[in-house]
Amino acid sequence: MTFVQKTYLHYQLLALTGEVDLHNSPQVRKQLLAIVGSGNSVIVDFSELSYIDSSGIATLVEAYNLAKNKQLSLTIVGARGAPLQVMELTHLNKVFPMIETLDEIKG
Amino acid sequence: MLTVFKAKIEHLGGVGINIVESSGRLGLFLFNTLSRLWMYRFPLEETIKQLLFIGAKTVPLILISGLFTGMVVALQFYDTLIRFGSVDLLGAAVAMSLIRELGPVMAALMVIARVGSAACAEIGIMRNEQQFDALDCMAIDSYHYVMLPRLIAAIISVPLLTAMFDTFGIGGGYIVGVLIHGVSDGAYLVGMADTIIWNDVWMGIVKSFLFGLVIMCVCLAKGFNLHIEQKQSGAVGVSQATTQAVVLSAVLMLFVDYIVSSLML
Amino acid sequence: MTSSDKSIIEVNDLVTHYGDRKILKDLNFSVEKGEIRVIMGGSGSGKSTLLNHMLALLTPTSGSIVIDGVDVVNANRKTLLKLRQKMGVAFQGGALFSSMTVGENIKLPLQHHTKLDEHTIDIMTRLKLELMNLAGYEDLMPSELSGGMLKRAGLARAVIMDPKLLFFDEPSAGLDPVTAVELDELILKLRDAMNMTIIVVTHELESAFKIADKITVLFDGEIAITGTVDEIKNSKDVRIQNMINRRARDEHLDAEQYIKRLTTGKN
After folding, report:
1. pLDDT of C28-82, one tens digit each?
2. Which of B133, B217, C60, C74 is 20 to 30 Å from C178 at the Cα level?
3. Quick count: other Cβ atoms within 10 Å of Cβ A96?
4. Element (H, E) at A11
5. Strands, DSSP E only, in chain C?
């Protein structure tokens, strides 16, 4: 699993590649909490993500909650396959703003 | 006629084999549990929880039984000593009996009654409900997570409880001897201090340490091996195992008592 | 028995004994990754024994059991430990620890095997509780739960680490029909969303036909058939037809022997 952080408009974009599981989700957590903690809204890019387990989902929930409390946003873009199924299984697809492509966010 | 005789021998043989197998299982259990001390980190949190159940909650019982034992011992000795005119030796007599013998044995019996039976039943029920199977499947070591904390807590608690028993007993003897029968309090206390030697106290400590080990080991093992040793599982099996555990730990405790006494006296 | 790259469980020539009695007699079968396999059989057929051997709780007399590439019979402690973290087991009565709350029970594997942050662990626990319709029951003790709730809590604990393999011992036993159906749906959802391979040991026909990709039927310690639901339904084996149609075993009545048994109590 690797991740890349970029700036997109006024958001921080975190692109996840590969699989997020018990072993590497703490790294993602640290990164996400840092981004939101320093006052940025974040977009998490799922397009290169092939698998995410409950620890990864829990990390997203925690970051989402922190963002909400700080009047910031956490959006998920490009979810498909297994990660999308997990979002549906946990009903989180009805909680997180989910978009198909970055184009849906204009400046 | 010969077949009846043969059947009896077979039965006895079977009992003998059972005893050997049981002892083997008990030994293996002890070894497995103790080996977790160097295999994994020390289970501090769990041990402290068990110290609360085993040690702290037994104190009231120890207080009462220690007090009454001391009082009765003092009464008996008073009656004897007064005939020889040696009533000043009461403190020493009460203290020596308690510290060397009665304290460790009585405290151990109280622990068997309160802690031993409960521990065996708890572990037996866990076995019945497949909780040890669940631990195995979760790759959590039962010996390390469940047994070792209880064993260590027993080894720490029982000597401490014995010391408390001795203290309350000597106090009880004081009440009977000095306060009720008017023995000189100086004679009671100083006589005691003059007569008791380090070896007496050391004997009490060694005994209570071993008693704690024996009691907890037997009670835990009986519960843990419920599915192998008892003919019936379920509630009946648990009660059978608990009864056997209480009886066996009491008998073994007295046996160890004799061995230590003969080695150290 | 062909070894397939897709099979995650392979049982070969498995023979087990209980004392002197032979329980499982030369069992051979394999389970593919992502499959839901139901193991069925009457009481005494050996299905619980088979489950216990697959979980490495018992050692067989002979034969091999290979799970995710690991020979569970001969594996050393460390290898078995790593494999077990990828396996979840839901026991019949839940097998929860009575001294801890439901939440603490479910968290236990995470606390022992991972270094995840407490917040993450808490949210993961609640996610699983929500999935099992047990939201809000986190702080209750097991003694305060009904039988069905205990099973679901046990299942939550079994899947807390998102295992590759899930073993389910008698999921429907003791449940009312509605809860049983909900549990069936849950099993299907888990396989689809988490790509779990699920082994269910049961005797409930309806559940089996609903969820199984394949069913392995045991009679007297031997495999009668391993097949899809349709193959089972169309089987010519009398025992299987009896089982499906819930017919009692056909007993030929010998009038003389019957009267003798009734009047003298001897066979």
Report:
1. 999 999 999 999 988 788 898 999 999 999 999 999 999 999 999 999 989 999 9
2. B133
3. 18
4. strand A11-20
5. 7-18, 21-32, 36-41, 62-67, 70-71, 87-90, 165-169, 197-202, 214-219, 222-227
Residue of chain B whose alpha carbon sits nearest to that of C109: B138
CA B217/CA B237 separation, integer angstroms: 19
Q: CB pairs below 8 Å between B and C: how many?
A: 46
Question: How far is residue C139's CA from residue C117's CA, in Å, rounded to a whole number?
Answer: 20
Pick among 3.40.50.300, 3.40.50.1580, 3.40.50.970, 3.40.50.1240: CATH of C1-86+208-267 = 3.40.50.300
Shortest Cα distance, chain C CAs vs residue B138, angstroms: 6
Q: How confident is the model at residue C176 (pLDDT cuts 50, 70, 90)?
A: confident
What is d(CA B149, CA B123) in angstroms, rounded to the nearest whole number?
13
- The radius of gyration of chain B's CA atoms, rounded to the nearest angstrom, is 22
CA dihedral C189, C195, C201, C204 (to 10 degrees): 30
pLDDT reading at C118 higher than 90:
yes
Q: Do chains A and C touch (3 or more CB pairs under 8 A)?
A: yes
Whether residue C93 lies within 8 A of chain B, CB to CB, comes out as: yes
Q: What pTM does this model have?
A: 0.88
Domain ranges of chain C: 1-86+208-267
Q: Which residue has the tokens 């700036």?
A: A7
Total number of domains in chain A: 1
Considering only alpha carbons, which residue of chain C is nearest residue B50? C99
DSSP A26-92: HHHHHHHHHHHHTT-EEEEEEEEEEEE-HHHHHHHHHHHHHHHHTT--EEEES--HHHHHHHHHTTG
